[in-house]
Amino acid sequence: MCKLPDKMTETPLKQWKSGLFDCFEDANTCCYGFWCCPFLACTVSRRFGENPCLPLCDMLVSSTVVVFGVSFVIPPVALSLRASIRNKRGLKGSLYSDILTSCCCVWCSWCQMHLNDFLINETKNSHSTGEQYNQNVG
């Protein structure tokens, strides 16, 4: 028989490494998101372990407005990937904020997800480089 712990320990949620409008702080991400947002979205999707072509479905959903006259305001892939990244990384936020961000600032949302992933990987790489240095010196 397996005994479960009496209390669930809750890990504190972290802030996003970059703010929603911090894409202007990194010129590369800003330009990538502004001029090539579909490619940026595919890059974020691939880095997170999803199919890189998944964000292209958001464009297909948008085209249904033209073809069928049915309006979809919320881009489903941007919303679900944002919520998934937030939950997996333990970031502060809510589904409500994800919906608002995906509806109103979808380009900034993709840039934020891209920057957040880049900054997390950069931090990991700097720590591993320091550990390798300490092992070589010590």
Care to describe what's here?
This protein is an all-alpha fold and 138 residues long. The model is unreliable at 129-138 (pLDDT under 50). The chain has helices spanning 27-35, 37-47, 56-68, 76-89, 95-104, 106-137. The longest helix is centred in the C-terminal third of the chain and has 32 residues, at 106-137. Helix 5 crosses helix 6. The protein has one domain (22-121). It holds the Pfam family PLAC8. This is Plac8 onzin related protein 6. It comes from Poecilia latipinna. Belongs to the cornifelin family.
Give average pLDDT, whole number.
80
Beta content comes to: under 5%
Extract low-pLDDT stretches.
129-138
The main sheet comes to: none
Shape label:
globular
Total number of distinct structural domains? 1
Compressed to H and E, one letter per element, the order equals HHHHHH
Q: What is the CA–CA distance across the termini? A: 46 Å
Number of helical stretches of at least 4 residues:
6
Helix content: 55-70%
- Described by its quaternary structure, the protein is single chain
Find the structural class using helix and strand composition.
mainly alpha
